[in-house]
Structures are given as C-alpha cells and as structure tokens.
Amino acid sequence: MTVRRGVPDGAEERVAELYWEAFGRKLGAALNPPATGRHFIATHLHRDRAVVALAGDQVVGVAGFQLDGHGLTGGGVTDVFNTYGLFRGIPRLAVLALLERTPAPGQLVMDGIAVDADFRGNGIGSLLLRETFRVAVDHLCDEVRLDVIDVNPRARALYERHGFTAVRTEQTPYLRRLMGFGAVTTMHRSIAPPVGEVAPPAGERP
Ligand SMILES: CC(C)(COP(=O)(O)OP(=O)(O)OC[C@H]1O[C@@H](n2cnc3c(N)ncnc32)[C@H](O)[C@@H]1OP(=O)(O)O)[C@@H](O)C(=O)NCCC(=O)NCCS
Fold first, then answer.
1. For the segment 181-205, what is each residue's pLDDT rounded down to a tens digit?
2. Whose CA is nearest to atom 12 of ligand 1?
3. Helices marked H in the chain — which ranges?
4. Degrees, nearest 5: CA angle 69-71-72
5. Gap from CA of 40 to ligand 1 centroid (Å)
6. Does ligand 1 lie within 6 Å of residue 63's CB atom?
C-alpha cells in the first residue's frame, strides 16, 4: 500500500467511481444519472487536490481537499449547462451551491474521503488523513476543517481519533429527503504546534 499526492494520470474515472460510491446519495441530487455524474466528476477533477492510496497501481482510497480556490471536484456553470442543458442545469447549480465550502484563511478544507469498500478497516483512511495533514503543513495552513453528516457516526469517530473536534452542528432537515441526512457537523483539527513548541523542519513533521 502506498500513499501519494495527486490523482495519477488515467485514474480519474476510478477516483470518480470511489467518490460516487461513497457520496452518490449527496452528489446524485446534483449530478444524476449516475453514469453522467461519474463522468462529470472524472472530467473536471483537479488532480492535484487529493491524496490517494494505491494497492499496486489500483487507486483504493482518495481524500480530496480545497486549497487556493480549487477542490478535487470541479466544473463550473458552463460545464453544468453543457452537460445537463440550461433548464435542467439551473436547479443542479442550486444544489451544488449547497455543497460548496469556502476555506477561511489558513484552513485546508477536506472535500471528502473515500476508501474502496473491500479495503475499509485496514488503516487506509488513517493514512490518507495523515498525508492530508502533511499537505496542510506544507501549505502553511494552521487548521484542517471538514464536515461530517449525522448518519455517519463511524466516520466521525475516526476523525475524533485523529484529533478533530466538533465546532458546530447545522440542522438541515430540508436536505433529509434530498440527500439523506438531517444535520452537518463541522470539525476542526489544529495543525499549529502547541504554544511554546517550535515546529520541526518540514521533512520531520508528522
Ligand atoms: C470513513 C472511511 C474513509 C474510513 O476508511 P478506512 O480505511 O476504513 O479507515 P481506517 O481503517 O483508518 O479506520 C477504520 C475506522 O473508520 C471508521 N469507519 C467509518 N465507516 C467505516 C466502514 N464502512 N468500514 C470500516 N470502518 C469505517 C471507523 O471509525 C473505523 O473504526 P472502527 O472499526 O473502530 O469503527 C471509509 O469507511 C469510507 O470510505 N466510508 C464511506 C465514505 C465516508 O463515509 N466518508 C466519510 C465522509 S465524512
């Protein structure tokens, strides 16, 4: 198992498949039907906004993040209209806007972490989180932020084990029918060294 930064050239469809398998309910509200949605994600990926886990040359896990105005998943207004048409595109843009997250200064925002169902429970998610923290260090971020939905307590437990703490929960009853969850909790994890400690050189950071 290796972890690397960036989606390998040619693995876009595979990453889109992993994302869709993990977040299809949420993404489907904006990008269905599934084949079109997966293709849309694959076509508009920002390959440098992810860390991936590889078993051999097969991508088995991915963690996307936002930095400097780009996240792993891309595609703008024109792309949505080109793919879905004008009248079907407008409501989809509204749904996509609901999913948008803007990093505050000094924050790296995680876009989603997904591990192939056959490989879960083997520490891959943890490896992806640790590499994402290193990306945050390298980009001089002092905090990593993510959102976790109320119907995913195991993912939340994983994040808590990796030092995230919940900072607020937004009730989203209007999304329960559309996307399958009724609340979203925002979690933060500090990257900055504790007061009085000097950050180790980049190569030696956790
Ligand atoms: C969450 C996820 C990325 C964890 O990846 P992983 O490689 O299994 O993670 P690790 O092996 O490092 O850690 C396992 C822990 O992950 C958490 N976990 C969450 N969902 C899990 C699942 N379906 N299977 C196994 N572990 C899961 C648990 O805390 C588990 O520990 P536990 O067995 O003590 O409950 C993975 O389960 C996944 O892709 N889930 C679907 C997508 C998702 O929910 N992403 C998070 C959105 S906020």
1. 889 999 999 997 655 545 555 555 5
2. 123
3. 12-31, 34-43, 77-84, 86-99, 124-138, 153-161, 176-179
4. 155
5. 26
6. no
25 within 8 A of 180, measured Cβ to Cβ: yes
CA of 74 to the centre of ligand 1 (A): 25
Q: Name the residue at shortest CA distance from atom 22 of ligand 1.
A: 120
Ligand 1, atom nearest to 120 Cα:
8
Q: Can you give the residue ranges of every domain in the chain?
A: 2-204
**∠ at Cα 144 (138, 148), nearest 5°?**
145
CATH number for the domain whose boundaries are 2-204:
3.40.630.30
Report whether 187 contacts 166 (CB < 8 A): yes
Indicate the pTM of the whole model.
Answer: 0.90
How far away, in angstroms, is 95 Cα from ligand 1 center? 26
Mean pLDDT of the chain: 91
Q: Taking a C-beta distance cutoff of 8 angstroms, is the pair 149, 184 a contact?
A: yes
Q: 113 and 125 in contact (C-beta within 8 Å)?
A: yes
At 180 the pLDDT is 85
Q: Is the CB of residue 153 below 6 angstroms from any atom belonging to ligand 1?
A: no
